[in-house]
Amino acid sequence: MDYTAQLDQAINRLHEEGRYRTFIDIERKNGAFPHATWKRPDGTEQPITVWCGNDYLGMGQQPVVLEAMHEAIDATGAGSGGTRNISGTTVYHKRLEAELADLHGKEAALLFTSAYIANDATLSTLPKLFPGLIIYSDALNHASMIEGVRRNGGAKRIFRHNDVAHLRELLEADDPAAPKLIVFESVYSMDGDFGPIEEICDIADEFGALTYIDEVHAVGMYGPRGAGVAERDRLMHRLDIINGTLAKAYGVMGGYIAASAKMCDAIRSYAPGFIFTTSLAPAIAAGAAASVKHLKTDQGLRETHQQQAKILKTRLKGLGLPIIDHGSHIVPLIVGDPVHTKKLSDMLLEQFGIYVQPINFPTVPRGTERLRFTPSPVHGPKEMDALIAAIDELWSQCALNRAELSA
Hints:
By secondary structure, this protein is α/β, with parallel strands linked by helices. The chain has 14 helices and 16 strands. The termini are far apart. Belongs to the class-II pyridoxal-phosphate-dependent aminotransferase family.
């Protein structure tokens, strides 16, 4: 076996399909977000504006967050020194879990190093706790949820995206006595559409199923305290397990679940992804706790964020560009071809200093390749004007379709 040749073939396939991904080396500037510096491959530098980051609210450079991290690192040093079971649980971890439990109105919360790990570890562990568990998963769930469901060894059913009638059909076909779990999201990050939370909760009650919701693209940004779409819709009490991230709207790192005290206790006791992983650095936990606490009261930041998203969508629609608009903060601009998507991304970066990453298969279905914009409260009129002018020019230059998509 020529292993090197096999690797070459695998990588070349991505190049041929226009799906090869490259890292853009950027240097963020404290206090200047969304402005940054692009470190070009040839060693030169170029000022850029970041339009595709997941630091949705700019909390990664919020003074309250940075101050908490500095204080923690001065007090404790760098790393946690171990897993949560072996010397890696500190006052900072406990404080953050208490903030998260309070945020979601749950008895407890459990920290992980990322929301991906939180999903994977929790969903792959639940069948150990509920033998015979059948998991019903939305077709467009996150890769981490798919992986957790795949690895658990239990029965799984995939229902069509947001199709509550199909979910009902699947539930009706299974043993009424079998334990059941419905797994879905509140905001689907590629199209920006919302999950039918109340309808799914109603069905879960009817069939005696547990509910598991992923709110990673909603926590911090929706609801009066930033607990997510379920809080906005006053449905948190009907959800058994809530998954969230600390690396998007909260601007730091890590993931978590919030649930009953017994559920969190069981997951931490049985999930290898939790048991055998070094815990978050205390400084990270401290910064995340400060961010969560701050956003519980900063409704103005959330309102500005939504306003910026509406402005960008309105202006793109005004140019007749094919965006998807489901009313969330996510702004997908459909290009429909991987090569064209990559070319547009490259030209925006090189010619206009605008950074937006191309989104291609397998992240989205073939034929729906896109540029995904994430406007924030700190993207001002100047940045917005520059983006609109650049897209308008390049869209015409590349002779792309301006027929608007329906939501």
